[in-house]
């Protein structure tokens, strides 16, 4: 049973998955759509050591407006810039 113990009984905590969540309101129908950015997987590193992510969100209603969002994070993964086309950010 030592084999299984060493596989599953490690004392290190599961890796933390951090999500940045945001809400955008569709410019066409007004639906508020929630988007999630996986800070561990979705970001790409830029030359200036900032991170960048682009996502396309779509509402669940009958409106097929696509909302493209672009976010920029600094080296400590704090948002420093955000843009949305087709929608506007709501806090
Ligand atoms: Zn819409």
Number of DSSP-assigned strands: 7
Strand content: over 45%
Give the neighbour order of strands across the main sheet. 3-4-5-6
Structural classification: mainly beta
Q: What is the approximate shape?
A: globular
Topology as H/E string? HEEEEEEE
Number of helices: 1
How confident is the prediction overall: mean pLDDT?
88
Helix content: under 10%
Q: What is the first-to-last residue Cα distance?
A: 51 Å
Radius of gyration over C-alpha positions, nearest whole angstrom: 18 Å
Count of spatially separate domains: 1
Give the ligands present.
zinc ion
Low-confidence stretches: none
Largest sheet report: 4 strands, antiparallel
Structural features, described:
It is a single chain. The chain is mainly beta and 91 residues long. The chain has one domain (19-90). Helix content is 8%, strand content 48%. It has one helix spanning 2-8; strands spanning 19-26, 32-38, 44-45, 51-58, 66-73, 79-85, 87-90. The strands form two sheets. It has a four-stranded antiparallel β-sheet, with no helix packed on it. Strands 2-1-7 form a three-stranded antiparallel β-sheet, with no helix packed on it. A hairpin with a 7-residue loop joins strand 4 and strand 5. The longest helix has 7 residues, at 2-8. The radius of gyration is 18 Å and the shape is globular. The site of zinc ion (ZN) has 7 residues, from loops.
């Amino acid at each position: 049973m030592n084999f299984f113990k060493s596989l599953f009984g490690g004392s290190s905590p599961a890796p933390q998955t951090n999500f940045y969540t945001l809400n955008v309101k569709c410019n066409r129908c007004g639906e508020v759509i929630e988007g999630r950015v996986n800070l561990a997987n979705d970001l790409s590193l830029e030359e200036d050591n900032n991170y960048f992510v682009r996502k396309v969100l779509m509402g669940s209603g009958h409106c097929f407006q696509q909302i493209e969002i672009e976010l920029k994070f600094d080296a400590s993964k704090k948002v420093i810039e955000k843009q949305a086309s087709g929608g506007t950010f709501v806090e």
